[in-house]
TrEMBL record:
Pfam families, per the entry: NMT1_2
GO cellular component, one term: periplasmic space
Family to which the UniProt record says this protein belongs: Belongs to the bacterial solute-binding protein SsuA/TauA family.
The entry's keywords: Signal
Cleavable signal peptide: 1-25
Localization annotation: Periplasm
Organism annotation: Brevibacillus aydinogluensis
Domain of life, per lineage: Bacteria
Database matches in Gene3D superfamilies: Periplasmic binding protein-like II
Protein name: ABC transporter substrate-binding protein
Length: 330
């Protein structure tokens, strides 16, 4: 009898330990980022500084390489949260999705590309683009739409005043320019800084500064997921906000050192200069709230690019509850 009691007690303690372990186990969230970019520094800071773990989350990050692939992964259940251009949720809505994709946190608030000239230009003006060969980005994506928006703002018709090349895959644009294609190119960091260092090209303008504040890259999830995982999404947003605040309050060098494991092929100097550029032009959002004015500008940019079938109400595709709660520290 004593042996049976001992066995029973042992089994009970083991079960209790198992249940306690399950209760304490961090909740897993799978993120799909549209590309690996210094532009997303606050996300990598949140990972490296343990902000997600502090919130009780186990975050799995995958680079999904492209807006279409990222959204396919989200809609099919391959990932839980997508970090992608805000325009993608509108594209899904335009297709009449039964389970709409909702943006709940903003990461970047300007365009992240720079205009790079093959020749060094002392006094650049956008008029100099007329008649040139311009290596742009993929049609329908935020970089290309913002690029065209900025050109039009300066009185340039991107489809008639210059030779626009936009049929090269995003990941191959920099190498295409380096190999001799185009007189001007639209590039993200660190390629822009690296090209300057190597004498391949020279930054003459910032599309981020020219276009103004826009919800460029944001976190989104299916509405059904947000409804079922409210607590987890709040913890996730809290961690992102911590990452944003950390980047805003630290030097470019400090941020570059923290995110270095994600950019092992980039030199410390180029990494630091890239972060500095984005900080100086306010590209990193300092909180995850996507404002309605930004949403309206996004749709204006899409409309001018011919990619907007009809305007979508801000309240329909944007949920700021999690972002506001994170900022308020509740």
């Amino acid at each position: 009898m004593k042996r049976l009691l001992s066995l029973g007690l042992a089994a009970g303690l083991a079960l209790t330990a198992l249940l306690t372990g399950c209760a304490d186990a961090p909740e897993k969230i799978r993120i799909g980022e549209v590309t690996r970019s210094i532009f997303y520094a606050p996300q990598y800071v949140a990972l490296e500084k343990g902000f997600f773990k502090e919130e009780g989350l186990d975050v799995e990050l995958t680079t999904t390489w492209g807006g279409d692939k990222t959204m396919t992964a989200l809609l099919s259940g391959g990932i839980d949260v997508a970090l992608v251009g805000s325009e993608t949720s509108i594209y899904v809505a335009q297709q009449g999705a039964a389970d709409p994709v909702i943006t709940f946190a903003q990461l970047t608030q300007t365009d992240g590309t720079f205009l790079v000239s093959r020749q060094k230009v002392e006094h650049f003006s956008f008029d100099q683009l007329k008649g040139s060969v311009f290596l742009g980005q993929r049609k329908g994506g935020m970089p290309q739409m913002v690029g065209e928006y900025v050109l039009k703002k300066h009185g340039i018709d991107p489809h008639n005043d210059l030779q626009l090349i936009q049929n090269i895959e995003f990941k191959n644009v920099a190498s295409a320019f380096a190999s001799g294609t185009g007189e001007y190119v639209q590039l993200f960091e660190p390629q822009a800084s690296q090209f300057e260092a190597d004498g391949i090209g020279y930054v003459v303008a910032s599309f981020g500064q020219e276009s103004g504040t826009v919800p460029y890259t944001a976190y989104m999830a299916k509405q059904s997921y947000l409804e079922k995982q409210k607590a987890a999404i709040q913890k996730f947003t809290n961690a992102i906000y911590k990452g944003q605040q950390w980047v805003a309050s630290h030097s470019p060098k400090e941020t570059a050192q923290v995110i270095a494991p994600y950019f092992q092929e980039v030199s410390p100097e180029i990494l630091e200069s890239s972060v500095k550029r984005y900080l100086e032009q306010g590209s990193y959002a300092t909180d995850p709230i996507l404002d309605e004015s930004e949403w309206n500008l996004l749709q204006e940019i899409m409309d001018q690019a011919g990619e907007l079938k009809q305007r979508v109400d801000y309240a329909k595709l944007v949920n700021t509850t999690f972002a506001k709660t994170a900022k308020e520290g509740k």
